[in-house]
Amino acid sequence: MKLTSKISIILVVLVLMSGCLIGILCVENVSDAFDDYLFDTYEVMLDEWARTFVAYYSYHGSWNGVEYFGRVVGLEQSGVVLSDLNGRILYHFDRDYVGRHVPQEIFSRGYLLRVDHNVIGILYPAALFSDTFTVMQEEFSKAMMGAIAKGVLIISLFAILIGIGLSVSIATPLKDLTQATKRMAKGDFSESLPIYGSDEIGDLSRSFNSMANELEKSTELRQQMVADISHELRTPLTVLSSKLEFTLEQNTPLEMEEVAVLYDEVIRLRGLVGELQDLSKLEAGHAMLDKTLISFPAYFSDFQVLLEAEAESREIDLRVDLASDAVYCYADPKRLKQIILNLVNNAFRYTAEGGAITIRTWQDAYGFYFSVQDTGIGIAPDELERIFERFYRTDQSRHRENGGSGLGLAITKALVDAHGGWIKAESQLQAGSIFTVWLPHWTDTKAENNEVN
């Protein structure tokens, strides 16, 4: 059964149940009110005749002869009925009723006669005992039930219409959502769900569209990553296979220079695979860090000579500015060296001869900072946010020539994140770039205490 039918049926059933319950309560209450109204109408008359009956009882000391008394004084036209305290009728204009008992539903509605605060009898309006009253009451009840039935029918029709409208408003987005999930299962993320309002259904549509966008980006990134990995692996494999195939065809031994070229390609492949493994472990949170307190000046001096030699060979001015108060940092020594070398090598790659690279350190109450600044080609603003993505390249041709894998900055960011720190990049085209890293102190201070502005 469709959702529209279910909601409509539920609403109609609820309306019918409510209508029947209201009808029963209305008939009972209105019947009681009708009796009260009739009794109140005769109350003045009952009060007048009550004095006559009380006087009779006071004079005779009992109700003996009250029926005869009634005929003598013309009580037939009074419209009243007298009963004793047990409900036995003592006087009625119709003698057939004398001696009978007042019906239970009428007994409690009489007018009490009192002498010296003692109840001596009960008066009733004669209309309560007539068939006319019963007919009037039944007709009134039927009229009430008919009106209630018409009201329930009209409300049921409205309930059906409202139910159909409500169910359509709910079922339509769900149907669209079902179709969208089917398209998504087939890999189609292009079509967004319409926003149906600001309620929960609208929030669901917005959340679904956001999820679809993220999945589309993730799918594109995964496809691009597979393509990039394939491309990166293809070059060294092509060199290796071509050279080995030629050697086999010629049946000639390889020269040492040729072996060295093939070995370089093997190293390149091994390095790429190693970087992919590192990045996967870091992003999965499986990389183990052995953090310790490091004396940065002494630690940095161990490989500063190598950086200076590389800078000299490239004719680049390498400047080191280590703040005197920034002595210690808390990090994994091996991973920290990897972070620094990745950033410095990236600066070497995009800084021309005659340029300069500056390494600085400083600290504050929350953590240790170091930055690598170059005077290279810079990064365009629209590319700055993507430079930490794996295999993302700001310069395709230079990247190939310089031998980068496109994973260095992605690995660097993952390493910094694993330390609980952050890394940010600032750059202008043809004016150079600066990469800043913050690592928290060895206390329990969290990175969020000092967010990147």
Description:
The chain is rod-shaped. The strands form 3 sheets. The chain has a 5-stranded mixed β-sheet with strand order 6-8-9-11-10, covered by helices on one side. Strands 2-1-4-3 form a 4-stranded antiparallel β-sheet. With 453 residues, the protein is of the alpha+beta class. It has 3 domains: 1-188, no CATH class; 200-284, Helix Hairpins (Orthogonal Bundle); 292-450, Histidine kinase-like ATPase, C-terminal domain (Heat Shock Protein 90). A hairpin with a 5-residue loop joins β1 and β2. It is built from 12 helices and 11 strands.
Summarize this structure briefly.
This protein is an alpha+beta fold. It has twelve helices and eleven strands. The longest helix has 55 residues, at 131-185.
Query: Beta-sheet strand percentage?
Result: 5-15%
Number of self-contained structural domains? 3
Overall mean confidence score, pLDDT: 78
Helical element count?
12
Give the biggest beta sheet.
5 strands, mixed
Poorly predicted runs are 396-403, 444-453
Radius of gyration: 50 Å
Q: Can you give the helix content as a percent range?
A: 55-70%
Please trace the helix and strand order, writing H or E for each element: HHHEEHEEHHHEHEEHEEHHHEE
Structural class: alpha+beta
| Strand ordering within the main sheet | 6-8-9-11-10
Could you give the distance between the termini?
56 Å
Count of β-strands: 11
Per the principal axes of the C-alpha atoms, what is the gross shape? rod-shaped
